Task: structure prediction
Amino acid sequence: MTPFELAEPRSISEALALLDPNDPSIRAMGGGTALMLMMKPGFFKPKRLVSLRKIAELAAFRVGSDGALRIGAMTRLSALERSAEVAKAFPVIASTLRTLSNRRVRNVATIGGHIAHADPHTDLPPVLIALDATIEIAGPGGQRKIPAEALATGYLETTLKGNELITAVTVPAAGRKRAIYVKCTTRSADDWPALGIAVALDADGRNVKQARVVVSAATEKPVRLSGVEAILQGGAMTDASLREATRAAASEADITTDMQGSAAYKRHLLEVHLNRAINGLLNGGARRGA
Result:
């Protein structure tokens, strides 16, 4: 690796002052797991990395009295995975983390870096979108909030400016919603999923009042399938309407071909696994928020 400056500010304001919106070789760094992989072969040659690890306020997370979960951007994924209160309030987050990469990565990676990297193969972004999460961003002009689905704009691309930082993620109380995350991997050395599906339903029996369906890994960014959601929210779910919804998903999603499989193969995976995921939720196969 080429030499670079490592800055370790102790406040958000200090960190923002070290960034430069006009210099892409200056980056904020959470756990650094993705950055290191890009730096070792020389794909990314930083002039300055601004480590956020000494900013204490970014490392806290808690479930509030209202049931909402607020996660500081520097919270390590393993801390969320092991948290009893997260597992109780949002079991889908805990179960998703148990299959995310490996324990060594989860011990270092942070939620802010995980979502800011904007790799469509990562697991938490589709789950956060399905749970209607909000992302808090700090910049020179102050704080702003965006829906989780508005962060990624394409492959490894986000709406973040060069002088902005993700400071927290807030997930509203699950209420009556049930949620599930399913991913299909090739069991290859890197274990990148060929498909990720996150579904959250507010249903009374088989009568779906609200649905959020997100597909990832097979697309260039996590994408909500609004057409599928409209079909699911059309009343009591029958076998015929479920088949209609899953077929619509295969048509609506802009699926890509890559090393994990062809677009046609992934569309088939999407249809099959979305059907199973929704059926499982409707039949009580997952707990509230699970």
Observations:
- The domain at 1-174 is CATH 3.30.465.10 (Uridine Diphospho-n-acetylenolpyruvylglucosamine Reductase; domain 3).
- The mean pLDDT is 93.
- DSSP finds eleven helices and 15 strands in the chain.
- The first strand starts at residue 5 and ends at 7.
